[in-house]
Specification:
With 157 residues, the protein is an alpha/beta fold. It contains three helices and seven strands, in the order E-H-H-E-E-E-E-H-E-E. The strands form two sheets. It has a five-stranded mixed β-sheet. It has a two-stranded parallel ribbon with strand order 1-2.
């Protein structure tokens, strides 16, 4: 069983989703299946089949979340510090081509969300950043070629 890093916030989201599935979604789908059974012939009952499919999805997701939570290596990034980039760091970069500034936080693979500036520790960009410090330059291979960045700041919040 391989452990994977996750922030306290990311773990809390897993816990919240699991709690919601068990306490809200499961009872609702059980009720929906019960109501659909009352409609009669199950072989041609679309509501019943849809409810059973939803139940299957919910149960699969519950198993997946429980597995993730069992394998999670929770890292409290508020206790991290330093100038070297590692898991949990908020890194500000300047794109060498466009001069655009972007900030990313390196998080676990299950909590990554590029729209929120959260990149997975296993992403090519994060792997290139690990071990670097302010003022370092990195190159990352992307589908369109190579991107170059300068590390402007490293913060642990």
């Amino acid at each position: 069983m391989d452990k994977f890093p996750i922030t306290v916030t990311g773990y809390a989201k897993l816990v919240d989703e699991l709690r919601h599935l068990k306490n809200v979604e499961r009872p609702a789908i059980i009720q929906a299946i019960s109501e659909a059974r009352e409609l009669g012939d199950l072989s041609e009952n679309a509501e019943y089949h849809a409810a059973r499919e939803r139940q299957s999805f919910i149960e699969g997701r519950v198993i997946e979340l429980e597995d993730k939570m069992a394998r999670a290596d929770i890292i409290d990034i508020t206790k991290l510090s330093g100038k070297t980039i590692k898991f949990g760091a908020k890194v500000t970069l300047i794109d060498e081509d466009t001069e655009e500034t972007t900030t990313y936080q390196i998080v676990g693979e299950y909590e990554a969300d590029l729209k929120q500036g959260l990149i997975s520790i296993i992403s090519p960009l994060a792997r290139a950043l690990i071990g670097k410090t302010e003022g370092d330059y990195i190159e990352v291979i992307i589908p369109k070629g190579t991107k170059a960045y300068e590390v402007v700041s490293v913060v642990y919040a």
